[in-house]
Amino acid sequence: MLRTTILAVFCISLTFQSCSSSEKEGKQRDTAITTPDNRENRVSPAETTTADFDGNVVTINYGSPKVKDREIWGALVPYGEVWRTGANEATTITFTKDVLIDGQLLKADTYAFFTIPDPEAWTIIFNLEEKQWGAFKYDSTQDALRLQVEPVMQEELTEALAFTLEKAANGGVIQLRWEKIAIDIPFTTAPE
Questions:
Q1: How far apart are the first and last CA of the chain?
Q2: pLDDT, tens digit, for every residue of 94-108?
Q3: Is 101 a domain residue?
Q4: Which whole-number Å values give the CA distances from 173 to 69, 92, 96, 115, 189, in the listed order?
């Protein structure tokens, strides 16, 4: 009788351990797929572009979605709404020196980079809250700088969203290309 009781307790214990272990594995598996920190398995991979403009190191971190035969402007990315300008976390731009953009001073810092796309003109936003997921908690009171730029239609399709940095006189140009839209944001290093 004692032997049967011990055997029954042992079997029940193994069953609970097995269920608990499977449940933990399932949770770990789900976490690996859905956690924002897991950058390796994302559909829109994390990308970085950086360039040195005479001591002003500019770095852009962004998620790079693909077109995948989808309608982008006015559909996947609605017109007139704040967009994270990439995928996953908000895109960030870091300047190691003060810059002038559209005649406005932007201090050396890291900013969340948002846009409000429109067929005629895009609103470009540099926001002080750089650590956020998407634009879900975007707060316009934290905007450090806003400006308007005209989108330019390109003949060639850019499948994966891409930011590049190009040198120009006394500064550079932040370039955004996706689908058939191109946006250029010139900047100069501010005088010290």
A1: 89
A2: 999 999 999 999 999
A3: yes
A4: 29, 16, 15, 16, 11
